[in-house]
């Protein structure tokens, strides 16, 4: 009887470990897409010019005043392919901005960026197109 309990515990631990590692290191996870998009935004010359350097990148503000939760929404398009929308925030010395990423699954099952935009929160409400593959 104890052998069955031990085997069940090992299997449960393996499933949990696989799920956590897959979420952290998968290129399709919201956090991985956020990391790539944040890097593209920070390195984009027009974003640097409009916001001012250095640029901080952060997610939604959660409990305990942390800003590390990435706001995302999974969806399915009219052809049945999976997609994801991600929103995060950028703040420079001159302005703040809201970045929006849309990615869809390709034939191999990996998410490909459709567009990455930054809406600058100034009085003109400028939009910077960082990447557009539509």
Descriptive report:
The chain has about 130 residues and is α+β, with helices and mostly antiparallel strands. The protein is built from 3 helices and 6 strands. Strands 1, 2, 3, 4, 5 and 6 form a 6-stranded antiparallel beta sheet that branches. The longest helix is centred in the N-terminal third of the chain and has 24 residues, at about 1-25. The model has no long low-confidence stretch (mean pLDDT about 90).
Beta strands, count: 6
Count of separate DSSP helical elements = 3
Q: Classify the helix fraction into a percent range.
A: 25-40%
Q: What do the pLDDT scores average to?
A: 88
Query: What's the shape?
Result: elongated
The major pleated sheet works out as: 6 strands, antiparallel
Query: Percent of residues in beta strands?
Result: 25-35%
What is the succession of H and E elements? HHHEEEEEE
Q: Span from first to last CA?
A: 58 Å
Gyration radius (Cα, Å) is: 19 Å
Poorly predicted runs of 5 or more residues = none
């Amino acid at each position: 009887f104890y052998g069955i309990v031990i085997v069940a515990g090992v299997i449960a631990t393996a499933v949990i470990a696989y799920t956590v590692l897959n979420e952290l290191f998968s290129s399709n996870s919201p956090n991985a897409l956020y990391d790539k998009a944040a890097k593209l935004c920070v390195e984009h010359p027009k974003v640097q010019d409009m916001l001012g350097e250095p640029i901080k990148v952060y997610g939604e503000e959660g409990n305990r005043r942390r800003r590390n939760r990435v706001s995302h929404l999974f969806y399915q398009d009219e052809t049945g392919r999976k997609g994801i929308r991600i929103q995060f925030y950028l703040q420079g010395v001159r302005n703040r901005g809201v970045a929006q990423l849309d990615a869809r699954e390709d034939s191999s099952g990996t998410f490909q960026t459709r567009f990455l935009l930054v809406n600058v929160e100034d009085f003109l409400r400028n939009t910077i197109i960082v990447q557009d593959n539509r």
